[in-house]
Amino acid sequence: MLRGRTVLLLLVLWAYLCSHGDGLRALRRTTGGRRGGAGVGLTLMGQDANGVPLRRSKRGWMWNQFFLLEEYTGMDHQYVGKLHSDGDRGDGSIRYVLTGDGAGSLFIIDENSGDIHATKRLDREEKAYYTLRAKAVNRITNTSLEGESEFIIKIHDINDNEPKFTKDPYFTEVPEMSPLGTVVMQVTATDADDPTYGNSARVVYSILQGQPYFSVEPNTGVIKTALPNMDRETKENYVVVIQAKDMAGQMGGLSGTTTVSITLSDVNDNPPRFPKSLYEFKAPESTEPGSTVAVLRAMDADIGRNAEMNYRITSSDGPSMFDISTNRSTQDGVITLRKSLDFERKRSYTLRIQVENSNPDPRFLRYAATTDGATVKLIVEDVDEPPVFDRVGYVMEVKEDVAVGTIIGSVSATDPDSRSLYLFVMCRYSIDRRTDMDRVLNVHPGNGSVFMLRTLDREDIAWHNVSVIATEFNNPRLMSRVPVYVRVLDVNDNAPTFATYYETFVCENAKANQRIQTVSAADADEPIGGHRFFFSLAHEASVKANFTVRDNKDNTAGILTRRNSYSRLQRSNYLVPVVISDSDFPMQSSTNTLTVHVCTCDREGNMQLCNQEALVLTAGLSTGALMAIIFCVLILLMIVVLFAALRRQQRKKEPLIISKEDVRDNVVSYNDEGGGEEDTQAFDIGTLRNPEATEESKQRRDIKPETLHPPIRRTVILPPAHRDNADVRNFINQRLQENDQDPTAPPYDSLATYAYEGSGSVAESLSSLGSMTIEGDQDYNYLSEWGPRFKKLADLYGGEDSDSY
Questions:
Q1: Cβ–Cβ < 8 Å for 325, 334
Q2: How far apart are CA 690 and CA 667, in angstroms?
Q3: Mind telling me which InterPro entries this protein's record contains (predicted)?
């Protein structure tokens, strides 16, 4: 409405100036170079910016600019100005022409009077001025009376545009507890009106909503805090409305508004606080170490990183019993158990917990306490517990010769719940048989004594590991188990023997007291002080001994010769009995035999000639190894003989399948059509007609006959020649009988092919052999009349019947 009033006021002022002036004062634009006389000029008549008519003397400077108000609201076309030529006498002989920006569309001219009007409502913000050209031409000859004149129509600005903000709405943040005058942000509004003309584009800012918290600078649009120390925890979001008004904020100016959403960002100005000073929790005594027993939460008015906190235990009546940590997702204090709880020993614990900010702000440390504390009381609840052994494991020792039923130790378990009731509750004991499958041990169910069920052998198993189970009498489901390790102690129950099998040789030219072998002993027992063995020659062999035994005092002994020479011919082998005794109690001993072979040696003692057994033994092979080698050699020889026999048998027999002649798995194709009727070599029907002309019975080519008797040939006497194919049937029957009785014939699944379809074929045979007519009924003499090409056929059929077939 204000905008309409302004436009109406300007129009009234313009009309007043036009009606009360001294008339249109014409300004004459002279043509160049022409003086006096008949000079012709084009006059532009208009108004200045203030609506005052302009007038200049002829041939002087010419006014070439019009002013036109924008946003014209009249019903008629808006008058711009007038063109007039000095040569125009009003007789209609001159026509005015207008060209340039908007000519004919925005601006029109009356070609008779030269009046220029604007046809549309113009907006300076779209285009500020228009450049046009005008001329006067003769209406008849259409020739220009003078040069073309150029002029400008400038659109005069009015205040028709309100200020507009670059954004709507604005969003920003400012830290809470900021001091007075802290800059929040700057808003900007623009006005499309002409900034060079008046105050239409001069914008002033003001705040319509948001006092008393914020303010805005009128000329710059900078928003600042108007109150100090605004607290986010009290109010976090603010909505501020800013107005921008043109005309320097004066009455009648146009205005625009925008909304600014201001959020107070958090700072760490609040310490954490416990909602309560005393917390109470309960936990059963069966809680496993590492489990959570309590969770407490302190409250912090801040958010995000400023609300992070740390918990710690400042005091506790259970040292090292508990730990506390912070759950970073919920900021809870989580108390966990480090050691097992025992209701019978301690029924409650008291802890002092302190909480503090993880990221304190030094600016606010002096305003309030930065930490807070609370007391936590943990009550231990009693549960029915299984029996508890007085040890985590038992180690018992027993000698391997102990008698069955001997007690080797005992276990003891008590019910921990009985201590709180000042009672003694007995337990029942048993052996976990899954750990004692051989049933070596047993336990007394009442007193826990462990005793033997069978004798032990340390050399078999040195340790026995079993589990003893203790259960309550009134509640057998509650049980506990403990490992029992039984060590079997050694007793001297094994006699020492040779460490290995010994066998050696002696030279025939050996000297007395010459060492021929060193022997050692082994004992399965393990005495505490270690082994000590004694070696000696058996008493029965010491009378006329050929060898002596010398104890080396280091658990070894040397076998020495006792005479100067030995004869391999008189005796090739000697058996030397050696007695080995140990030093433990009771003493154990055994007699072991050393075999000595007599061999021929050179002067240096190197063996030259000995029996085969001695040679093998000298090489270090035992009898078992020698037998294994011989057995392997025999197996290899048997394999070689068997392979040779198979090869020989394969050479005697030809393979059953010979190339492509195996009719069982091969299809033999004869792609030879023959040479026609004149080709008598391709197929001889006489073979079928005359079985006597066939070859003698042939042996099979795929398998060599194993019998020396040739197949029996049966001679079939054909009846007189009949023309009913009986000879072919007889031939086939003969071949069938021969194959049935032939021992060298192919197997039963072989295929014998006879190239003859027979008279029962659906397709029938094209051969004359299968003709339904008798050959005698046919007259073949006419074949001789067909020429030399059929001479052969005429000779076969045209003559008298013969048995040459």
A1: yes
A2: 29
A3: Cadherin, Cadherin-like_dom, Cadherin-like_sf, Cadherin_CS, Cadherin_Y-type_LIR, Catenin-bd_sf
pLDDT in tens, 220-257: 999 999 999 999 999 999 999 999 999 888 887 889 99
For the record, the structure tokens of 102 come out as 């908007």
Residue 56 DSSP one-character state: B
For the record, the structure tokens of 675 come out as: 């040479």
Of residues 439, 437, 452, 448, the one with CA closest to residue 481: 448
Give me the residue label for tokens 């130790």: 409
Instruction: Name the strands in the sheet holding 27-29, side by side, starting at the edge strand that comes first in the sequence.
Output: 27-29, 42-45, 78-85, 115-118, 107-109
Q: What is the DSSP string of 115-168?
A: EEEE-S---TTT-SEEEEEEEEEETTT--BSS--EEEEEEEEP-S----EES-S
Burial of 189 (0-12, 13-18, 19+ CB in 10 A): buried
Cα distance from N-terminal residue to C-terminal residue, the chain: 140
Q: Which residues pair with 43 in a beta bridge?
A: 28, 84
The Cα-based distances of 532 to 527, 549, 584 in angstroms read 9, 17, 8
What is the C-alpha to C-alpha distance for residues 95 and 780, in angstroms, rounded to an integer?
130
Q: Which candidate, 398, 407, 395, 394, places its Cα nearest to that of 488? A: 398
> Helix, strand, or coil here: 691?
helix
Q: How large is the greatest C-alpha to C-alpha distance in the chain, in angstroms?
A: 188
Q: What is the C-alpha separation between 327 and 309, in angstroms, rounded?
A: 10
Across 300-435, where does the E strand assignment appear? 309-316, 322-327, 332-337, 348-357, 371-381, 388-389, 394-399, 407-410, 413-414, 427-431
Question: Which pLDDT belongs to residue 610?
Answer: 77
The DSSP bridge pattern shows strands 348-357 and 371-381 to be antiparallel
Amino acid, res. 649: Q
Select from 60, 32, 20, 22 the least CA-distant residue to 44. 60
| Nearest-angstrom CA–CA distance, 387 and 479 | 6
Cα dihedral angle (755, 756, 760, 762), rounded to 10 degrees? 60
Predicted TM-score (pTM) of the model is 0.44
Q: Which residues pair with 409 in a beta bridge?
A: 450
Q: In angstroms, rounded to a whole number, what is the distance separating the alpha carbons of residues 369 and 532?
A: 84
Contact 327, 300 (CB under 8 A): no
What single DSSP character describes residue 709? S
* Phi, psi for 767 (deg, rounded to 5): -75, 155
3-state secondary structure string, 183-247? EEEECCEECCCCCCCCCCCCCEEEEEECCCCEEECCCCCEEEECCCCCCCCCCCEEEEEEEEECH
Q: Which residues pair with 165 in a beta bridge?
A: 189
| Rounded-to-integer distance, Cα 83 and Cα 134, Å | 8
* Cα angle value 694/698/703 (rounded, 5°): 160
Residues of the chain with pLDDT under 70: 1-63, 367-368, 418-425, 611-622, 652-725, 744-779, 798-805
Pairing mode of beta strands 94-100, 129-138: antiparallel
